[in-house]
Each structure stands twice: as C-alpha cells, then as structure tokens.
Structures
1.
Amino acid sequence: MAEKPHMNLAVIGHIDHGKSTLVGRLMFETGAVPAHLIEKYKEEAREKGKESFAFAWVMDTLKEERERGITIDIAHKRFDTDKYYFTIVDCPGHRDFVKNMITGASQADAAILVVAAPDGVMDQTKEHVFLSRTLGINQLIIAINKMDAADYSEDRYNKVKEEVSQLLGMVGFKASEIPFIPTSSFEGDNISKSSDKTPWYKGPSILEALDLLTEPEKPDKLPLRIPVQDAYTISGIGTVPVGRVETGVMKKGENVIFMPSGATGEVKSIEMHHEEQDQAVPGDNIGWNVRGIGKADVRRGDVCGPASNPPSVADEFTGQIVVLQHPSAITVGYTPVFHCHTAQTAGTFMSLDKKLDPKSGEVKEENPTYIKAGDAAIITVKPTRPMVIEPIKDIPQLGRFAVRDMGMTIAAGMCMSVKQK
Ligand SMILES: Nc1nc2c(ncn2[C@@H]2O[C@H](COP(=O)(O)OP(=O)(O)OP(=O)(O)O)[C@@H](O)[C@H]2O)c(=O)[nH]1
Ligand SMILES: [Mg+2]
C-alpha cells in the first residue's frame, strides 16, 4: 500500500494554553494512545497533585516537565489521519525555552496555534506567530482553546478570533483563509468531532482541519541538506544523527559530508519511525548511520549534504532582517545568537549596510549608525564559529534565521549571500 503523504506539524502558543493537552487528547480520541495509558497518567498525575495534566503527559515525558507542569523540550509523535501521516512537534510555551520552540518550528510544514479563550493573545502567542512566519511555516490552524472555561461563549470566541486575526495580518498571514476552531482539549470539544456545546460554530474540528491542509511541495530537486538535531550512540549500529531532510534526496550507499566538521562517509542505513528506508526525501524525520562517523564528528547544528556539493559554511553572510524588539538600539559590534535551522551560533554585526522601509523594502538610508525595533535592514554578520547557512535564493529552507539575545527574539531574517570559509 502506498504510504500516505507526510507532514510535520508544530503545535505552538503561549505557556499553559493547552498545547500538550490538545495533542494528548487528539491522540487519545483517534486511538493513537490507548485509554489505559491515559488512566495510568491520570492516577500518577493525581498523586503529584497535577491531575489536570494527564493528557499533557502523553507529550511531556521528562521528569522535570511533569513536576513543573510545563513543556521544556520539543517532543515528536507520529499520528495518522485519513489523508496524511503527521509527525507532531509539541513546542514549549515558556519564554525561557523559545530556543527549543524555534528548533521545532524550523522543522514544520504547518502549525496549530493554541490560544486560550480566557486569556486571548499573550506574549508568546505573538512571538511564536512571528517566528513561525519567518521560519517559513505558511499553513496555520487556530485552536481557540479552553472554551469550557469561557462558558462556550460565541462572543468570547469572536473577540479572540478578532485579536488573533489582527496579529496574523501583521506578519502577512491571510486570516480569512485560516480555520479558527473553538476547542476544549480538556473536555474534548471539536477535537476529533464537532461538539454540541458550540452549536453556533459550523467549521471543521481539529482532526477535519488537519485533512484540509495542503500537501507541502517537496523540494527534492535541490541539493541534499539535513540539519542535525541530535546524535545518538546506538549499540550494534554506532553513531546515529537524527534530523529532518530539508531538501534533496539521500540514498543508501551515497557519500555524504557533515559541515562544518567536514567528516565524510557512506550512508549505511536510514531509519524513520523505527523502520528501515532505502532513501529519505524532504519532510522525512530520520535517523541515519554513516560509515566511519563517530560521536565527535557530528552535533546539533551541523548539516549533512552530498560530499560532491557540501553545505556552505559562512565566514561572513549578509542578511535582511526585521527588528521585532530591542531595549535600545543595535549598532556595529552587537553579538547576539543566530538561530538557523538547528544551529545556534553567536554572530557579530560587522556592518549595517542599509536601512529599509519594512513595508515596501525600499532603501531609506545607506550605512545607518543604528537600527531599532520596527526597522528593517541589510546587515553583514560574522559568525563567531563556523556555521552552515545558505542564501535564500538557493536553498530557502536553510536561509532563514532568528536573532536572539537576553531571552528575547530580537529579529528575524533571511540570508542574502554567503562569503564562504
Ligand atoms: N479548562 C481547561 N483547561 C485546559 C484545557 N486545555 C488545557 N488545560 C489545562 O491547562 C494546563 C496546561 O496545559 P498544557 O497542555 O500543559 O499546556 P501547554 O500549552 O502545553 O503548556 P507549555 O507546554 O508549558 O507551554 C493544564 O492544567 C491543563 O489541564 C481546556 O481546554 N480547558
Ligand atoms: Mg506543553
């Protein structure tokens, strides 16, 4: 039987708005997680005084996550609908873990944005939407969650829908084409089927909306690029890097190279969801083993590509950025962290080349002395250590980045050109 098309789906939104609970509930209602496991979580969670987190525990498996009742690192789970099979990436909402959310969002084709109806748009709702857009996610589903805590009120739903629509419009999403679904992940309303508690709502449930997503185009004609998310040592196999194929195709037996380390070898095995594959295509989340590659040769942020066409390592690159927030002004010498695919590398602003009108892209000033929140600019950056980045026109999937400092997202942007090492 032909495999269903694959999609990576990030679940994003402000802390505590119910992302993990929504994923847990969805998996429970569709049979991906058996009822007895939820019962077991309920019991264990009750003992810890955290009974309401039983569904979240499907995704929150770390001890610290369960004790604190928050998601810390991203978790992946396979999940099937009639049309697709999804890898769901549950992201943390806590502002200290936005860097993990960025890794998750950088792997996604689409996202569910969870907004709690009683709260509406909050800080990380804004930050996650902004980041998702700049990281290339262009399909969204909005869950207006915790409707049970808002009396299933249509007025409240409309109010939050309006607020979220404004936010989406600001970063260039078309709110009119996006489903806004009133949900209670806690009670199970409009998750896998429509709820009689929201008779005023005529749209799809979350499950139905997932099947309405359009299949992402596979950039399989571009050169192979797989950013490494992690590397494991597995007995009997050896070092197994894991990550998502962004572009190109990798076949067993092919010679590949990891950059910036430059380690090369032949692909011995490729595995996805515990099954052996002969090849991997864009969107596949895989683990793979390369002859002669040890744990020291590969780490998070490296990129695997064909030995004949290695990923480009920047000595310097130029980028076009939009500044989201900064307490004062950004000048030459500023050295925040650049998050690009799975890499997180400090980089110095070597020059501010042009200030642009953020709406039209028109040049407003050559070599400005500073830039500040709301400005768009062309800048030249020197990474403090070797880092893979590609011009957006060549490999868009590896050309987007976020700029972070002081626990905040300062800016987001795209790479215009690379001066190779
Ligand atoms: N009343 C109500 N509570 C909910 C709902 N969904 C989630 N909650 C509760 O909200 C709390 C947080 O839920 P989580 O699913 O952990 O929230 P999260 O968005 O994953 O949080 P982080 O991952 O830490 O950002 C838990 O106590 C849930 O039971 C809902 O639909 N209604
Ligand atoms: Mg969570």
Note: The first strand starts at residue 6 and ends at 12.
2.
Amino acid sequence: MVVRCGALARFGMLLDVGRFVQNTGRMTFWMALFVLAVFLAALSRPVFSFSEHISGAAPGTTLAGQSPSQSSPQGSAAPAAQQAPPSQATPPPTSPTTPGAATQTPPTPPRAGLNIVVLDPAHGGTDLGARGTGGIHESDIVLEFAAQVRTALESQGFQVLQTRQANANPSFDDRSAMANAQRGAIFVTLHIASTGTPGTARVYVMNDMAPAADATGLIPWDRAQAPFVSLSRKLGDQVQSLLAQRFKGSPASAQTASVRQLRTTAAPAIAVEVSSVTVEDRAQLDHMAPGVADAIARGAAVFRPSYVVPTNPGERP
Ligand SMILES: [Zn+2]
C-alpha cells in the first residue's frame, strides 16, 4: 500500500507538473496574443498627441501659435483654417460698431432664434422731445410707455434691453450700438408726436437705402440699416396693422421716413409714434399705452419666424 501510495503520489506529481507546463504554455500563448493585439492597435493609430486634449489645439500646432512665416498683418483676411482654433479664453474679435466686419470671424455656436428686442424710449436728459401745452414732455411719456411695452414683450418670450431706464440721454450711436452688438435682435424706438390726430399711432421704417457694402465689403456705420430695410418693413407692417385695429384713423401699413435713429441700426428696426403731446389731458395718452404695447409685442411675435438670425453680431441678414 505504501509503495502503491508512493507510486500514485509520484504519478500525481507528474500529472501536476504536466498541468503546470500545459497551463504555462496557454498563458504564454495568450500573453503573446495580447502583445500582438496591442502592437496592431498601436500601428493603426501611429500618432497620439497630448496637444489634442488641451486648449483645443489641433494636431500639428503648438500652443505658442504659428511660426513667423505663418503670421500675417492685423486686419488682413488670413484664412482661419490655417490657424489654431481660438480657445474659450480668447473670443473671436468682433466689432459691433462696424456692421459687416464680423464676417471675418471664425464659426460661432449654432444660430439662436430671434429672442431679443432693444427698446428705445427716445430723447431723455436735457432733450425733452416734443412738448405739449399742458407741460407734457415726450421724453417722460415714452419712458412710461416703454415699461408697458417691455412687460408685453416679455410675456411673448422676448428678452428686452432698454437703451435708457431713466432720464438719461444716450447718443443715437450708443442706442444703435446696443442693438448692433446683439446676435440678432429687433429695434423699436418709441416717440410721442407733436402732430397727428390724437388717439392714432404710426410706424415708420427707413426708406430704401443705397447698396450697403463699400469696396472693402464693410458696411459704413451710417448705412447700417440698408441690408435690413425689407425686414424692417415686414416688422413695421405687422405692428402697424395691429395698431390700426386698435386705434381708428391709424394707417393700415408702415410708412417710410428718414429716421436718424434707424439709419445706424443693423437690425430690423421700426419707430413707433403716438399722437400726440398736444392732448389736453395726458390720461388720453396713458390710455393708449396698453394697446400700443400689445401691438408691438404681438407684431414682433408674428414677425419672429420670418427672421433668420445672422450668425455673427452685426452681420447682414
Ligand atoms: Zn421723438
């Protein structure tokens, strides 16, 4: 029994050694296969650069920028594709004061819908605007109208920016610049006329302007409205038709006039003028405010789908 047991034990040992050799062989085989797989994977993607994972630098570029041979003078139309994409920390240079100049900027995020209205209570500060016999000042009344117009626009889902909140008097250019700095906004300037039948309201848009761009492709500041004239008319007609329903004696469609504030505005832009400061009792004007506010807000809402918002601030439609 002992011998047999010893023989069995030896046999068992041999079996164990055999299994060990067999297992080691399998391990070696799988390890070799793994190494081969890693090698093949490396071959299929020969370049791995950490620069692809920092600051959005494209492969082959350095964070320091281009070599001197690639640099170009400021302001020239260097192809953006040859340069490293801009990082988040340095937004593309845009100039809201030069409509059309923004076409040189690299691609920006997807187009947003028309959602901003720049609301301009005209005059203000030392500029009182039209004055009625009863001490009524246009600059005061438009500010009060603006508050109601703002509420009506916000209830239609618009974000409203006001060119003035109080008795200040920003320049024409400052007011236009607020609209021109937005990526797609409409501009509404509010006035109270010294003429016209009391209880009526009119919308004015710029008359047709000469072709906008000069030889450089830039639109001069004082013709910023040129590319937007037809859109302005569309917006103006919408608002005017709603005003006409509300205030009998008002025109059926928008009228054209050379309005200084509209000329420098690179956005669909209208002037809304309410008659008039000559009323005996200013309550007559106050009663018109809700109707004017509603017409502007609903007109803007109807106009919204017909305006494809430009990609860059100040860009032509
Ligand atoms: Zn005015």
Note: Residues 1-15, 42-103 have pLDDT under 50 and may be disordered.
3.
Amino acid sequence: MDHDDRSARGIVRDVSDVDRDPGLNPPSEPGAADVPGQVPAVSLGQGHSSVPVVANHDVVDDEIDDPVFVTEKLSVSYGGAPAVLDVSLRVPQKQITAFIGPSGCGKSTIIRCFNRMNDLIPMAHVEGMVRYHGVDLYGGDIDSVQVRKRIGMVFQKPNPFPKSIYDNIAFGPKVLGMKGSMEQIVEQALRRASLWDDVKDRLDDNAFGMSGGQQQRLCIARALATNPDVLLMDEPCSALDPISTGRIEDLMHELKETVSIVIVTHNMQQAARVSDRTAFFIVDMGSSEEARIGRLVEYGPTDRIFTNPHDIRTEEYVSGKFG
Ligand SMILES: Nc1ncnc2c1ncn2[C@@H]1O[C@H](COP(=O)(O)OP(=O)(O)O)[C@@H](O)[C@H]1O
Ligand SMILES: [Mg+2]
C-alpha cells in the first residue's frame, strides 16, 4: 500500500481478532454506531494493496485522484428487492460531496455503505465494491469498530445520549481508550464543532436541554471526538431552522480542512451552497410500484451539475421541474 495506508491503517483486523469482533455488535440505540466498543489489537492484513480502480460506469468521476472512497457497481437490496443499483463514484478527500435526488432514490442507503451501517439492518444486502483509501471496506477482515471510529456519522434528527454534554463527547473516546486528557479531548471536539463557547459553563447539564441546532452540533462534536477522517451527514439540517442550518453549513466549511464530508440533502440550495461535488440520483420507475430502483444519474463538480448538467434528468431536477 502507498500513502493511503496511513488513513486506512487499523481498519483491517488481525485474523486472530475475528472471534472477539466487538464491532459486529449493533449499537444499542440509533446513531450510537460512532461510539463503538473496545478496540481490538489491529494490524494491516495481507492482500490489501491499492488495486487500480477500473472505471466501469460512465458516471465515475475520473478527475479525482486520491479519493477517500471509491465505489464500483455498488448495489443494495432489502429483503431481496433491489433499492439502488450500480453506483460507481469516487469521493474526494477534504472536500464536501453532496448526494441529491428525490425521496427513495437510495441516498441514505448509499451513504450508509460508507461506514457499514447497513450491517445493522438485517434485511440489507450489499453487492459491489467500496474502497476506503484503497482498502476493501467489506473485506472479511475489516474491523467495523475501527471503521466507525474513522468514519463518523450524523443523522437527520439530533440524537444525543440522555447524558451530560460532557459525557456525550467523552463516551466514545473512553470506550476506545483514547490517550490524553479527557478534558482536553472534550474541549477540542466542542471547539471544532463551534459549540465550546455556548456550553463551556454547563458541561454537566443534560444534553436534552440544548436547542435543536446545538444538539446537532453536539452530535457532530461527538463524532469528531474520536478523530475521524470522514464525516457522513444524512440530511443533518432538515430538522433545523434556517439560522441553525447556516451555522452547520459554516461549520462544514471549516471542517473540510481536516475531514472529508459526504452529505445527503433534499435541499438543492444547500447542496449548491456547501458542496464541491454533487451526485444526482433518481428513482427509476419500473413497470410496477415495487420495481422502483435508485440509480446514480450524474456526478461532477457542483457548479457544473447546477449550471451545465449533461443529463436531461439532472437538468429537470435542478431546475425544479420534478422531484
Ligand atoms: N431499512 C430498510 N428496510 C427496507 N427498505 C428500505 C430500508 N431503508 C430504505 N429502504 C428502501 O430503499 C429505497 C431507498 O431508500 P433510501 O435510501 O432511504 O432513499 P433516500 O434516502 O434517497 O430517500 C426505498 O425504496 C426504501 O423504501
Ligand atoms: Mg434518506
């Protein structure tokens, strides 16, 4: 492996750790997946070289060197029914990538593939390839605890734990046995989420007393506390007012200096404002209602997708003609 092994180091489990796999235990509550259990001893497995990725679908964005994620013909079905088919794309590092498209086109399904959240849905079946810094994320020797430490996730509805502000942030670092002063870890995560000044005098208060926007920034801080390399955000602002939304968008701009961000948004203006690249998905209407299948239509630099889309369906969507 070349450069990419630094970021991917640790997600490949030593074969001897397979039996004590703490990562396969689903989190006890939604959104707890980024607050994993104990850390197994890890080492780089064999056979995880960065295989050159062959573009096998015309929407692959080949302009991106050194992607954080590469998907190849990624398909997900639920209970045997295909939900989204043949998604091939490259997600750049230290940029913001937006997934847009009408409800049900598979945006959440695809973003969940990036930290193996679909593992927690028994009906879900994932096919195709997802590489994270060149490593097959679905390889048999991947430690999903480490995956979710490095690839944090924030959901539509803020979901703080019913604990103090401090304990919300400290929980993940504690179970991971992160070294250093916990006070500093908590302060740094809250500062990175632009929340420190709001809460520094009430760290012991219950997180449920915060406003919705603050709770969402707390969830971002909680994800940042384990020092992730990627932040996945599934409609992170759709439960928030415009001012709180603006603060999260400002925060995303700051965070992309240090983390790669993928955001699902149903709000096209938001995608246009915050993202560097946009992927547009549709629901392909089959012959029957049951045959609705999500597909990636077009992917590229956000300004081009919005001003000069190559596909008529993208043009119709971004100009508000459907969706
Ligand atoms: N947990 C699930 N179980 C069964 N079907 C699901 C599940 N999650 C999503 N789906 C189905 O997969 C398709 C894509 O859904 P989703 O990824 O949520 O789309 P989007 O986020 O774009 O609205 C839909 O048809 C949806 O009903
Ligand atoms: Mg969704």
Note: The radius of gyration is 19 Å.
